[in-house]
Amino acid sequence: MKRANFKTIYVTIICLIITLLCSCSLFVTDKDKFYMDKDLDYSLSRIDIDKSGRDIVIPAKVGDTTVRKIYLADPYYSQIDSLDVSRVKELESFELVLYAEKNKSKLKKLDFSKNKKLRLIVIGQTKALKNIKFNNKCDYIFLKGTSIKKIDLQSLEKLDNFSYFNGPLEELDISNNPNLEHIWIKNTNIKVLDVSKNPKLKKITVDEGTQIIGSTNAQIEYNKRAE
């Protein structure tokens, strides 16, 4: 009788251990946390934050698929506290758009310095974002609704398109961006923009009252600042 009771208890404990193990993260793979969308050219387009946690490290591969594009467009991703893309060596484009202006995003910094193949960056409505580091291959940057005051573009000699909307940007040095063709700066704190080192500029959009220094053949458009 005692032997039967012991066996019952033993089986019960084993079942509990198996249940606990099945529910823990040891059995959660990258394919459970990240989704590669074949309809978006196999972009990493969805993250399960419940499984990944709020401090997210993007892997180089999800299953057998190499991560080359990240496309996260949903207010849901305002739950992210930190985002590490340093392992994604083949990353070519990065887009994070949260849409809602009053989202509760806590993401304060992004570092793309390890992503040597990254060429396109689009970031929208990340209100807490104050610091961003670029790689030196990037040629398209679009930033909207961030809290970035200073941006270092010195290493981006291939940059041809730069946009910054609705943020506290105070100064912008584009003296080492000779291939820049289009620049849009709207609703910022930029008072002076020196374009004397940008011979390929085709269009410049700045806020009314911004002083443009240097001769240019670019079309200049002045934006009426939002109230």
Q: What series of H and E elements makes up the topology?
A: HHEEHEEEEEEEEEEEEEEEEEE
Helix- and strand-based class? alpha/beta
β-sheet strand percentage: 25-35%
Largest beta-sheet characterization: 8 strands, parallel
Could you list the spans in which at least 5 consecutive residues all have pLDDT below 50? none
Gap from first CA to last CA: 83 Å
Structure, explained:
With 227 residues, the chain is α/β, with parallel strands linked by helices. The protein has helices spanning 2-23, 30-33, 49-52, and strands spanning 34-37, 43-47, 55-57, 61-62, 65-66, 69-73, 82-84, 93-97, 109-111, 120-124, 131-133, 140-144, 150-151, 161-165, 171-172, 182-186, 192-194, 203-207, 211-213, 219-223. A hairpin with a 2-residue loop joins strand 4 (61-62) and strand 5 (65-66). The protein is elongated.
